[in-house]
Every structure is written in structure tokens, then in C-alpha cells.
Amino acid sequence: MRFFEKADKACTHTTDYINRSVQHLEYTGILVYMAANIKRDYMWNTLGVILQNAISPLLLVAVARLNGVEAVGVFSFAFAVSLLMWSLAMWGGRTYQVSDSQSEFEHRSYIAVRVILATVVLLVTGIFCLLNQYDAFKTGLIFVLVAFKILESFADVMYGILQVHNRLYISGRSLAVKAVLGLLAFVVIDLATENLLLAVTGIISVNIAVFVFYDLVQADALESVRFPRNKVQQYIREAGSIIRRCFGVFVIFFLAMFSLNIPRYFIDIYDEREVGYFGILAMPITLVVLMISFILQPNVLLLSRLYHNHDLRRFRGIVYKILGVSLCVGVAILSLAAICGTWVLHLIFGIEFEEYWYALMVILIGGIASALVTVYLNIYVIMRRINFALIVLIVTNIVLVPVSLVAVQKWGLIGGVWAFSATNILQLFLVALYFVYDGIKGANR
């Protein structure tokens, strides 16, 4: 009997060892496969993200050249509002979806979230415009740009499906096509009609076409996105669970984006001409965010796998590399802006910017800090540990409101720029300190 008991134990130990070995080989194989695809993902995602992020400044250039600096002020403000509504429509974004490595929710449930939130976004936009009593043109422009961003949120959930299946390069191709054709449609229609509302509808038409005939088709080929009638209620219930679960994620990303718009809002109230300059000065921040986006996004799935498999040494190593490269990119952009930033802005927009050199430097420093904060926020979402960042962003943004009000009233645009930058530097210091503290605490466990 003892012989059989020992034999049984030996078999059990051997089976456990084999299972662990198989799991390790599967995990290693996944990492090797992902590493092999990251180069292709980087190339296409980089191109797509560059072109997508270039849309905002290029549209500002087109508006400045075709419609004048006052139109830039209205357009940049409307675009900023649409970005805030886009943040609401995203509700945590693709990072949470892609890092759902345990497949707790189906992709259809994430799609249902975007459908529900699109309705909410339209209602919130209407209330916002009514409360501020904007005229018909400004209200119409805000609504059209918000509709454009809602379409982007629908496309993004399809990109999440593609990324989970290691097909991020497909989404890069989609972004590239939308950006090029959308910009062309905008410029042609604006030249022909001198009507910003009609020009933006051209962008929407391009986005609808690419979404229906490319994004949906590619995502559906990998994993059906059609909703079976008998399961619609299930997906709506799961969507409600995701919305509740991701509330904190939404808040941190919304507040991270909101900090730039608090001083912009008060500048719009006290000096409508200056808000146009503020929008143009904030444009180089897009370059920083752009670079950091294509450094971070292709690594989200890999970081998620590493963290959930407790490979914390490699996880933190990649995080610090992303932060290091991002900081170098930010410093390089700041240096170039210091040398020729105002000259480039003058060349592009045909407006004199020499007196705004100091404001450009300050807002860029704040933009670099904001972009690095966003990196940390994405990492905390992967780790499912956002509470500290949530507290930091809520408190700093609450403080930023009265500070911006006073600063803009007293010093104008430069006061708003300083309020924005100081807030983001403080946010960066706190979230970075917590990441280091968490690593030390984890090493001592």
C-alpha cells in the first residue's frame, strides 16, 4: 500500500511539474510571439497615431489660413469641449479592455458601453451649450465635433479587439486612412463653402465609411461583434458592470485632460481673442502626447501579461524605459520649441508670436508633465490600482479652478498657462512618488 501511495504522490508531483512547465512555456511563447509582432505594430501604430494626432493642429492651421484667427478661437474651444466629451464616451478607454487578460467581460459588452455612453454624451453636450447660452453657430460646431469624437470612441473599441488578437497594426492603418482622407475632405469643403460646420461633416463622412467598411469588418472577422437577440439584455447588464467598475478610470483620465481646459474656459470668458492664441500655444503639446502614445500603446498588452503573471521585474523595467524615452522626447520637443517654436508658429499660422515665447515654454513644460502623468495612469489601470491617482487628480483639479479664475483675471493668458503647468508638475511628482513607494513595498513583501 505504501508503495502505491508513494507512486501516487510521485505521479501527482510529476503532473504538477508538467502543468507548471506547460504554463511557463505557453506564457513564454506568448511573450515571444508578441515581441515578434511589436515591430509591425509599432510601425503602423506610430504612423496612425502621428496622423491622428496631427489632425487637431492641421485643422487649426487650415482654419487660421481660411477663416481667420477669431475662427481659430471658436474652433479650438469647440474642439476642446469635444475632447472632454470624447473622454466621457471612452469611459476608461482601451487600456482597461485590452488589459482584461482574464476575459472577465466579452468584447460585445465593451461595445454596449460605448453605445450607452454615446447617448449620455449627446445629452450632456446639449445641457452644457444651453447653460452657457452659446449662439447657434458655436453650439452647432460643438455638436458636430462631438459627433466626430463619438465615432472615434466606437472605432476605438474595435481597435481593442484587434489589439487583443495582436493585430494593432490594422488599427494603425485605419487611423492613417481616416486622418488623410478626413483632412482632405475638410479642406476641400471649407475652401468651397467657407463653412466650418459643413467642413467638419466631411470628416464625419470619412470616419463613418472607414468604420463601417474596414474597422467593423476586421474586428468581426476575429471575434463576432454582432449582438444575438437573446443576449442583448446580458450585454447591457455587463455594460452596467463595466461602467461601474471603470468609473474611477474614467474620472482619472477625464481630470488629466480637464486640467488644460480649466484655464482655457476662463480665458474664453474674459478674452475671446486670447483663447485663440492659447489654443495655438497648446498645439505643440499634441506632439508630446503623440510621441508618448505610440511608445506606450503597443506595450499595453505585454505589460498586462507580465503584471498578471507576476513578472514584476520585467514589468517595472519596461515601465521605466517607457518613462525614460518619453521624458527624452519631451525635452527634445521643448528644446526645439525654445529655438524656433514661435518662428514655426508664425510660419504656419501667419500670426506674430514673439511676445508669447515665454508662455509657450511654460505651457510645454506643463504638457510634458501631463503626458508623463498619463503614462502613469495607464500603468495604474493595468495594475488595477487607481485610488491614489484618483485622489491626487480630484484634489488638484478642484484647487485649479479658483487658482485659474484668479490668475486669468489678474495676469490673463500667462496666468492661465502657469496655473496649468504648476498643477501638472505637482500631479507628476505625486503619482511618480507613489509608483516608487509601491515598488519598494512590493519588494519587501
Explain what this protein looks like in three dimensions.
By secondary structure, the chain is mainly α. It has two domains: 18-245, no CATH class; 248-445, no CATH class. 89% of the residues lie in helices and 0% in strands. It contains 16 helices and no strands. The chain has helices at residues 2-67, 69-90, 93-98, 107-132, 136-164, 168-193, 196-222, 232-245, 247-270, 272-281, 283-296, 300-308, 312-349, 357-383, 387-411, 413-443. Helix 2 (69-90) packs across helix 10 (272-281). The two termini are 42 Å apart.
Q: What is the share of helical residues?
A: over 70%
Q: Extract low-pLDDT stretches.
A: 1-8, 10-34
Question: Quick one: how many beta strands?
Answer: 0
Tell me the span between the first and last alpha carbons. 42 Å
